[in-house]
Write a structure and sequence with these properties.
By secondary structure, the chain is an alpha/beta fold. It is 33% helix and 24% strand. The protein is built from 7 helices and 8 strands, in the order ααβαβαββαβααβββ. The longest helix is centred in the N-terminal third of the chain and has 17 residues. It is globular, with a radius of gyration of 16 Å. The N and C termini lie far apart (36 Å).
Amino acid sequence: MFDTYYKRYDEWYEKPFGKSAYKLELDCIKKILNSFNLGLEVGVGTGRFASGINIKYGIDISFNMLKLAKERYIKVVKAKAENLPFKNNSFDLVLIVVSICFIKYPFLALKEAYRVLRNGGRVVLGLILSDSPWADYYKRKREHPIYKIATFYSYYEVVSMLELSGFRILRVLSTLFEKPQEEKPIENLEIREGYYKEAGFTCIEALKL
C-alpha cells in the first residue's frame, strides 16, 4: 500500500496543513531529544523526519519510500520493524514516528528497538494516540488509503508496551491542540510537558536500562 501511495504521502508534507504539521511535530521531537551519535529511524518512510534531525539509518518495508529516503541521504535497508537487521547494541537512538499504528506487532518492534540500542540509549516515539480526537478524525476517514489500515493505541497501552520491553519512561511532550482538519496551516504551536488526551501528537522518550 505504501509502495502505491508513496508520492501522495510525500507530497502531503508540501501542502499548507502538512507542512505546518511536519514542522510542529519535528519541533516536538527535537525538544525531547538528547544528543546522540548514531541513530536509526524505524518506519523511515520517505526520510522527512530522519533527515530533519540528522539520523543516518532508516528501515521500512516500502521500496519506493526508501528510494526517496535515500535521496535525502539516509542509509536505508528494506526490513520489518519486528526483525531489525542490525547487531545488538548498535545505536544510541531509535526513532519511531507515526509508525506504531502501522506495525503489525508493535510490542515485538519495541523489543527489537531495545535489542539494537546500547545501554543508556533512548527510543523516541511520535504518536497519534487512540485517546486523541485526531485518531477519531482519521478513523472516520476509512476511505483514506493509508489510515484505513491503522490501529491506534492508547497512551497507557504504549507505556505498558515500553515498560514490558525493558524501557523506563523519561519524558512526555504533547502538541497539536487544534480541532482536527487537513486543509489550513496550524496556528497553535504550543508544545506542553506531559500527556494530554486532547493533543494530536504525543512524543515519548524512554531509556534502555
